[in-house]
Amino acid sequence: MVRIKQVLLFLAGAMFFAACAGMPSGGGREDVSLLVVLSEIGSPTDAVTLTVPGGTVKVKPGEDGVGFVKLDAGPVSSEHGVPFIISGRSVILYPEVFDKNGNTRPVQPSDQQRAMNSLTEYVGFERWFGGEYVNFGPYRPKQYLSGEYFPLKIESSPAGAAVSIDDVVWGETPLELELTAGRYLIEISAQDYLPFRKIVAVNKPESLSPQLELQKSAGSLKKDSFRIMVAPVRFLSGTEDPYGDVIQSAMEQNFSDDSRLEILRDTSGFSGDGARDFTPAEAVGADLLVFSSYASDGETLYLEAVLYETASRRVHYAETYISEAGFAVFDSIDEISRRFSDAVGKTLPEAGEPIVNREEEVTAEMLAYEQGLYQQRMVESRMSRRNLVSIKAGMGGFTDDLDDGLGGSVGYRSNSLFNNYRLDYQRILSPHISLSVMMQLYLQTIESDGNGGNINPNVSVIAGPEFTFRSETSDVYFTPGLLLGFAPGFTAYTTVDVDYAPQFYTGFELDVGYRQYLFNRRSDRPLFFNTGMMFDIVEFAYGSGQDFRIVPIRGSVYLGAGVSL
Asked: At what angle do helices 329-347 and 244-255 cross, to 10 degrees?
């Protein structure tokens, strides 16, 4: 019997330490991609079924109409949507929006913004920082990490001028949008007019309405030459690429009409998988680099084009185009290439100015900082729910025997097992300290000398500080607490039956445990499960007609679940 109980305690302890060892570190498989699927807002959609290599997966959009699924690289398709291929370690927005009937429509800029807003609430999103973002247009995660949003209204005279925010084109005037608090370089430019530039501190609703100044002479500005390279176009709908070379050639032809651009046509250094590799462009000194990808279902052409500044690897301009395929596909490609080239031309700077007025480059240190900042904000968001309530169940035993005072031994210390049930409450006071109050019920079996036994219930309250080490999705904690308990009278069956009177006991308790939170977005109410170990380090028991005595150690292992309120 003793051996069985020891084995049970050993297995429970092993489960606890295995859980702690498996605490997430923010890493994961490097080649896994994240697919974002949209449904219409206000039109509840059943889970969208996607066909992937080896079977199907279901994606259930949330209340905001956004769903997420992790997928390995490879082809993906749906019954009604366009097929495409997912590359490794990328974040891809499915190019169509589903309604409750399974019908689809192409994504619009408002859908891209909605997807990015929801994406930056996704737990674990930081593991894709530095990777590719496909089909999100100008919306990038650094722009939408977290914080309060403020409206910005931009008008100009003349209207229709291109608006760039931190070197990314967002549209044409008049334009209304929302930005997180911060400082932004805003540029408004139009053909034959001098560009308007201003750094705006956004911390309240703002508006801009500049009067653009007409250039005195079309030839008064010296036009610099920028070296631009168009990388091979990635086809997302299969293995046989029908139009990639045509799209690349059309873009190069339209760029060549701009005298400020020098076209670098040797793209042999790029790999055939279409990965966004900057090395070939850096090797030849390209200032600008275009990556593009497209998909087609035979009737509609979806093309995303992204212009990067090579040195800093920052997005200079991005746009998603939707046009006709079929017999009109070549006209569509020409039109898309012309529109993209015109938009890029509006973003080029004045004479003598760098393409991107930014000194810092994207480095591993910056990436690690952004990831750490994202994780910190996730933890802070979870901590905004400062009350934790949980229930736990455990089992344990004692380290020594209790002398019955009659020359015998009541062996419930080493030979008996007890079960304990707890209701816990924690109030978060700071990132690493909480107030912990626990109510505990013990059901303790009293046995000795092979004569059987009975159940001795007792209750206790434990209070103390909880010291917590928090990650994005889990906590490791330990709680030193003061214990106060009560046990009713019981009879121990030994060589002579002994009646023990009701007794009180106090002691010092140590709780060491692990919480794993079960939520996908920071706006969700975090549920969690617990596992841990509790020890009564020393216990002082006293009661009517009994001598004061000390119980050295009582230990248990527990499992539980709870919720943040």
From this structure: 40
Three-state secondary-structure class, residue 326: helix
Q: Residue 394: CA atoms inside 13 Å, Cβ hemisphere, count?
A: 32
Q: How confident is the model at residue 333 (pLDDT cuts 50, 70, 90)?
A: very high
Q: Is the pLDDT of residue 93 over 70?
A: yes
Measured over the CA atoms of residue 50, residue 37, residue 251 and residue 273, the dihedral's sign is negative
**Count of CB atoms within 10 A of residue 290's CB?**
24
Within 8 A by CB and 6+ apart from 114, the residues are 38, 41, 64, 65, 66
Give per-residue pLDDT as tens, 181-191. Answer: 666 778 888 88
The model's pLDDT over 410-448, given as tens digits with 9 standing for 90+, comes to 444 444 567 889 999 999 998 899 999 999 887 766 554
Q: What are the beta bridge partners of residue 509?
A: 481, 536
Q: What's the rounded Cα separation, in Å, for the pair 23 and 27?
A: 11
Spatial contact of 97 and 40, defined as CB atoms under 8 Å apart: yes
Q: How far apart are CA 263 and CA 478, in angstroms?
A: 62
Q: Residues 389, 565: contact at Cβ < 8 Å?
A: yes
Q: In the predicted model, what is the mean pLDDT of residues 499-515? A: 81
What sign does the dihedral 106-112-117-121 (CA atoms) show?
positive
